Amino acid sequence: MKVKVSELVLVLVLSWVLCVSAEGKSLFTDIGITGCSDSDGEELYALDGEELWYADFVNKRGVEPQPSFIDHMSYEEGAYEGAVGQQQICKQNLKADLQSYKNPPLQLDPPSSPIIYSRDDVELDQQNTLICHVTGFYPAPVKIQWTKNGQKVTEGTSINVPFPNKDGSFRQTSRLEFTPQLGDVYSCTVNHPALDQSLTRIWDVEVQQPSVGPAVFCGLGLTVGLLGVAAGTFFLIKGNEIVYKVFA
Question: Which keywords accompany this UniProt record (predicted)?
Fold first, then answer.
């Protein structure tokens, strides 16, 4: 794991715990992250790369972004208050680190080109979710902005907290709730200090039409087959007529 220190990112502490199931067959990775800067902070708990709980320091609450199809895991009361306390410790450590390293220059790694896709198969007038994903950047976070037909969109958007990769970089995902309409064009734009210009990916509404190829070939084959049967029947009858005339 690379450890990077900059004037923007103060301290990042990663705790990895490996747990084996009761059967001794499955291996899981549990991770806790505490990070802070002069203007931001992060407290996150995840299992196998899926977020279980994170501190929302803007709205001053803990968030449990777990999907509905799993057994919900709740963290004990006071988890958010504990995260606030961890931020104070983190900021103190940051101050000491910056003094020790004498304010080292900022190290920047740009994000990858964004990937944008729909959560479900696209059906017109059926609510869906667009997902924009970037990875490989440092420091965190990135800023992600959505547009619809060239107009900025904020309603129905969300973004997860930065998640660390094994090489010390980060990945992050933003979502947009939308209802597909034919002809609509969406875009996801990513900004980061390491970029000279924004990265934008465009996605337009396309509905997959049923393929007519198999039906055409099937119909053609059936037609040819029927013609063959008709021709065979015709020659069979004519042949019988000739035989009958010869021996009549």
Answer: Adaptive immunity, Disulfide bond, Glycoprotein, Immunity, Immunoglobulin domain, Membrane, MHC II, Signal, Transmembrane, Transmembrane helix
* Superfamily per CATH, domain 115-204: Immunoglobulins (2.60.40.10)
Q: Is the pLDDT of residue 126 over 70?
A: yes
Q: Output 47 or 247, whichever has higher pLDDT.
A: 47
Residues forming beta bridges with residue 54, ordered by sequence position: 44, 63
Please give the Cα distance from 156 to 74 (Å, whole number): 25
Q: In what order do the strands lie in the sheet with 11-20?
A: 11-20, 27-36, 41-47, 50-56, 61-63
CB contact at 8 A, 116 and 178:
no
Give alpha helix (H) positions in the chain. Answer: 79-101, 213-247
Global pTM value: 0.66
Determine whether domain 11-101 maps to CATH 3.10.320.10. Answer: yes
3-state helix, strand, coil in the chain (%, to 5): 25, 35, 40
Domain regions of the chain by residue span: 11-101, 115-204
* Tokens 């990265």 belong to residue: 199
184-206 average pLDDT score: 96
DSSP assigned state of 184:
-
Give dist(CA 31, CA 52) in Å, integer.
10
What residue type is 148 in one-letter code?
A: K
